[in-house]
Amino acid sequence: MSIVVPLIFAFVGVFSLCRGTDVFSALTDGARDGLKVVLAMLPPLVAILSAVSMLRASGAMEALTCLAAPLLGAVGIPPETAPLMLVRPLSGSGALAVGSEIISSFGPDSAAGRAAAVMLGSTETTFYTVAVYFGAAGIKRTRHTIPAALCADAAGFLAAAFFARIL
Amino acid sequence: MAMGIVWTALVLVSLVFAALTGRLDDTAKAALDGAGSAVKLCVSLAGAICLWSGVMELMRRSGLLAGLTKLLRPLLTRLFPSAKKSSGTADALALNVSANLLGLGNAATPAGIRAARLLADGDTATDELCRLVVLNTASIQLIPLTVCVLRAEAGAARPFDILPAVWLSSVCALAVGLGAERLMRKKRR
Predict the structure, then answer these.
(1) B106 or B140, which is more confident?
(2) pLDDT tens sequence across A95-148
(3) Number of domains into which chain B is organized
(4) Total number of domains constituting chain A
(5) How far apart are the C-alpha atoms of B150 and B158, rounded to whole Å?
(6) Which residue does chain B place closest to A143, by CA atoms?
(7) How far apart are the C-alpha atoms of A61 and A116, rounded to whole Å?
C-alpha cells in the first residue's frame, strides 16, 4: 500500500505539467492554506486532549473500557476504542484527540490502535454534518436522516474492527 | 455550547475518579501533558496537512477534480433522480462527492450545501436530501492522510497498510446508511 501516495503525487504532477498548470505555485499556495487549517486545529485540540489525558490518568477511561468490554467483545470490537466511538459522531477534534491518544497508548500496530485508525478514517462527524447541511438548507424536520446516518456509523465501526483485524 | 458541556463533564468525571482511586497527582500532571501533546500532534500533522493541501490545490487547478466530477455525474443522477431535471443540482452533487473522495473538505462543503439547497423543498427534509446527508456522513475518502500520520508518528512500520481496511469500512458504512435511509423512509406528511 506504500506505493499509493507516491503514485498519486507522480500522477498528479505529470498530469498537471501536461495540462500546463503552474505546478510549484499550486503546491506552495495549497500548503499555505494547509497552515491555516493546522492553526485552526490547535486550540480545540489543546482543550480536548488535556481533558482526555486526565480521563486516562484518573482511571475513568479504564472503567469505561471495562464497562463496554462484554458488549464490544461479543461483536469483535476492541473495547479500548469505546471512547472513540462515543465521541466520533459529535466532534471532529474530539475524535482526533481520542484517536491519537488510543494509537499512542496502545501502539499503532496493536488491535486497538489499528481499529481506532480505521474507525477514524472511515467515519465522519455525523451531527456536525447534519447541522451544517440542514442549517444551510433551512430544514427543521430532519425525518429519518439522523437514525440512518447513525446506522452508517455503527456499520462503519463494526466493519473497521473487522477489516483492521483481517487485513 | 455542547463542547463546553462535554469538556466540563470530562474534567468532573476525571476529578471524581482520581479522588476515588488516589491518582490525583497523575491526573493533574496529565492535564499539562495532554496540552503539550496537542501541540506536538499539530506540529507532527502540520507538514503532512500542508503537503496534502498543496497536492489538492494542484488537483483543483489542473482540472483533475473537474474530470472526476464529470466521471461521477451519471452515477449520481441515478442515486438522485431529481438531478436529472436540473443540471445545476447534478453539478453540485458531483463536485461534492468528488471533492470528498479527494479529501478536499474546503470544496466539498460549499458544493454540498448548494446541492442541499437545490434538493430542499420547504422545511421538511426530502428523501433525496436525507440521502445526500447520509452520503456525506459516511466518509468516503481515498487517502485518510491524518490517520496515516498519526500511525507514522506512533512508530507504525507501515503507516499506509490500513488503507484497504479504511476503504472497505467506508463502503460498508455507506451501503448500510443508504439501505437504512430506504428502509426507514415513510410517506411525508
Answers:
(1) B140
(2) 999 999 999 999 999 999 999 999 999 999 999 899 999 999 999 888 999 999
(3) 1
(4) 1
(5) 12
(6) B125
(7) 15
Report how far apart, in Å, the C-alpha atoms of A53 and of each of A48, A147, B42, B161 are: 9, 31, 16, 28
Domain assignment of residue A37, yes or no: no
Chain segment A54-103, per-residue pLDDT in tens = 999 999 999 999 999 999 999 999 999 999 999 999 888 889 999 999 99
Q: What is the pLDDT of residue B19?
A: 95
Contact B64 A15 (CB under 8 A): yes
Residue B51 in contact with partner chain A when CB distance is under 8 A: yes
CA distance A22 to chain B (A): 8
Integer distance in angstroms from the first to the last C-alpha of chain A? 12
Contacts of B29 (CB under 8 A, 6+ apart): A57
Q: Looking at the domain assignment, is residue B185 inside a domain?
A: yes
Whether residue B1 is contained in a domain is answered as no
B15 within some domain: no
Which residue has 503532512 as its cell numbers? Answer: B48
Tell if the CB–CB gap between B30 and A16 is shorter than 8 Å: no
Enclosing domain of residue B79: 63-189
The per-residue pLDDT for B187 is 58
pTM score, whole prediction = 0.91
Does a structural domain hold residue A83?
A: yes
Residue B24 lies in a domain: no
In a domain, A86, yes or no: yes
Q: Domain of A159?
A: 42-166
What ipTM is given for this predicted complex? 0.91
